């Protein structure tokens, strides 16, 4: 009994794999996107820390910080997520008037325009660390009874966490190969799949 030997038809392109690995671990391919991914959120945190010293007017501080975080929300959701990690999410209304959330992950292929590993690290660390900082500000405002600052911090956390949640959903789509059911995706899904979070860092 003879078995067909298909090994001759298989070509292993190790050089292309090495080039792809070198390209992915290269420095920053999208410097402007990487800069603005961190710029607005870092400036908002610095403005929050220095607001009492710079201006005693709470309203101007509130407007400045919320404006910075709104710019951050838009740029991360619409630009840096797509360029740095190949993920995007949005909301659309169908013909029946129902609101549908769409989460997409770009398939990684040789020569595509997604970012490098360094850019992915910048993206995920910025996306995860900043909400943690705002959560720390929440507890400091709560325990020092600065109620008006508490409202600012809650608004800041909600803007930051919305993007984090959306991109974790996109990451789950990319790893599972199919979108998870939007009604059943909760923190429990993340606990069942810790590789979604740990794989990013």
TrEMBL record:
Keywords linked to the UniProt accession: Membrane, Transmembrane, Transmembrane helix
Any Gene Ontology CC annotation: Golgi membrane
A Pfam family recorded for this sequence: DUF846
Transmembrane segments: 32-51, 58-76, 122-142, 149-168
Keyword Hydrolase attributed: no
InterPro entries: TVP23-like
Membrane topology: Multi-pass membrane protein
Record GO biological process: protein secretion; vesicle-mediated transport
Keyword Protein biosynthesis applies: no
Main location: membrane
Subcellular location(s) of the protein: Membrane
Sequence similarity: Belongs to the TVP23 family.
Record protein name field: Golgi apparatus membrane protein TVP23 homolog
Organism, as annotated: Seriola lalandi dorsalis
Lineage: Eukaryota, Metazoa, Chordata, Craniata, Vertebrata
């Amino acid at each position: 009994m003879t078995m067909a030997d298909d090994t001759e038809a298989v070509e292993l392109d190790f050089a292309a794999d090495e080039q792809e690995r070198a390209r992915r671990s290269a420095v920053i391919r999208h410097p402007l996107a990487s800069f603005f991914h961190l710029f607005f959120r870092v400036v908002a945190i610095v403005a929050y820390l220095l607001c009492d010293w710079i201006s005693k007017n709470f309203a101007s501080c509130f407007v400045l910080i919320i404006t910075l975080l709104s710019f951050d929300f838009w740029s991360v959701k619409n630009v840096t997520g797509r360029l740095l990690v190949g993920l995007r999410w949005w909301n659309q209304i169908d013909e029946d008037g129902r609101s549908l959330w769409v989460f997409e992950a770009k398939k990684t292929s040789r020569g595509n325009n997604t970012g490098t590993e360094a850019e992915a690290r910048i993206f995920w660390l910025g996306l995860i660390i900043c909400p943690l900082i705002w959560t720390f500000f929440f507890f400091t405002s709560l325990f020092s009874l600065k109620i008006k600052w508490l409202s600012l911090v809650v608004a800041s956390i909600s803007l930051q966490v919305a993007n984090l949640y959306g991109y974790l959903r996109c990451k789950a789509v990319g790893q599972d190969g199919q979108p998870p059911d939007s009604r059943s995706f909760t923190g429990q899904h993340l606990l069942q799949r810790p590789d979604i979070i740990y794989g990013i860092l």
